[in-house]
Amino acid sequence: MTSLRALLQWTTILPLGAPADFEAFARRSWLYPAAGYVTGGIAALIAMAVPDTGVAAALALAAVVLLSGGNHLDGLLDFGDGMMAHGSREVRIRALTDRQIGTGGVAAGILIYLVSFAGLSAGPSVPCAILAGEVLSKGALAVLTVTGAPFREEGIHHFLHARARAYFLPLAVLLCLPLLATGIPAVRLAAGFATALLVTGGMQFLAGRLFGGVNGDVAGATHEIVRAAVILAFAFA
To answer: Is residue 9 in some structural domain?
Structure first.
C-alpha cells in the first residue's frame, strides 16, 4: 500500500496525506498501470455523464491532464523541443532539458492532443478508450523504466531504472489484463496492446538516436504519445 500511495502521489494530484516513501514504489515500478485505472477511471466516469461525444472527449482529456498535474504533458513539450532542435546531440539534449518551452514543444502538444481528441470523438466509446489509453500508457512507462537506458546518471528516470528488474515486465502486462473485464471487445484491446508496445519501442529507439538514451521527459512524452496511439487504435479497430 505504501508503494501504491507513492505511485499515486507521483502520478496524480490526489490528496493522499503525508508523502509516502518513493523508494517503495521505485522497487515496484511494475505497479504503474494501477495509476491508469485511477486516472482513466475518473475520466471515464466524467465522460459517461456527458451525452455529447465531442464534449465528453474534451472533458475526458482535460480530466487526465488535470489529475496528473500536467506532469506527462510537460515531458511531451520538452521532447518536442529536443526532437525538433537542429544540431548535435548535445544541442538536442540542451533543448530537451531546458525549462523554457519552444515552438517544437508547442507543436508536439497541439498535435498529440488534436489526434487524441479526434480519436476519442470518432471512436465507439469515449469512456472505454480513455480508460484503456491511460492504463496502457502507464504500462508503457513500466516497460520504459526497465528497458530504457538513461543517457545521464541523474534524474527520476535514472533513479527508477536503477531499481527496476526484468521480471517487472510480465507483472506490468498482467496488471493491464483486468481491462478484459470491462467489456471492451478483445479485438480493440489487442490492437491497443500491440500499438502501445510498438510506440514504446519506437520512442526508445528514437530517444537513443537523438539523445543517446532516455530521461524523465522522454518517459512523459512516451506516455502521452502511447495514449493518443491507443485511442486511435480503438477508433480504427
So the answer is: no
